[in-house]
Amino acid sequence: MRPRVQYRNGQRLPLDGVTARLSVNPRARRLSIRIDARAGEAVLIAPSERKLGEAVAFARTKADWMRERLAERPRGAPLEPGAVIDLFGRPTRLVATGGAGAARLTEDESGPVIASGGEGEAYARRVENLFKRVARETLQARTDVHLRALGQQPVKLSIADPKSRWGSCSPHNRSIRYSWRVIMAPPAVIDYLAAHEVAHLVHANHSPAYWSVVQRLVGDHRPFRKWLRDHGQALHAVGR
Fold it and tell me: What is the CATH number of domain 84-237?
């Protein structure tokens, strides 16, 4: 009899041409597979470590599906001269200025332009820093609007680049963290994200009461959520 293979939470293994990561989620009610487009791997989810072997066996029956889904993921869009990257949902051209100057946002007859010095990684870093600065200014402004609407006190705001989440709120220390990448989305989607996180100061869950607060702030939130689901992978691919 062949010895039983012991699998571990967090383990990665090759699976019929796909890199698979094992994940234990005690709240999961069944075995499932999630495609992590950013990491380029499939995530096999089981409710317990004891069930990981069953998750692997299940995934082997879905190998073709996993390969197809990973092949469909957006390719990285490098931050380099000549690229066109959305900012506030508007196509924005990246151009080089020579020298080592910081990136700046301008506009000409053809639309918005980001001009920056530097070469290679230095150029990309300057452009990304500009996106982060614009994200902080914009999200701070929209956060403040929604805080006032709910009669909430100011919060500590930070900008980061989380793996998959667009934002997070910690009511206990009154802090909100946003992904800078949402600044590439249309303004209404950016505003929705700010409302989404501020509403967690009132309800730290996703209950009907929570969603009623979001609706009070931005109206029908479903189109904005759908936009992030449909376009999120492409935004996470930018600069990678």
Answer: 3.30.2010.10
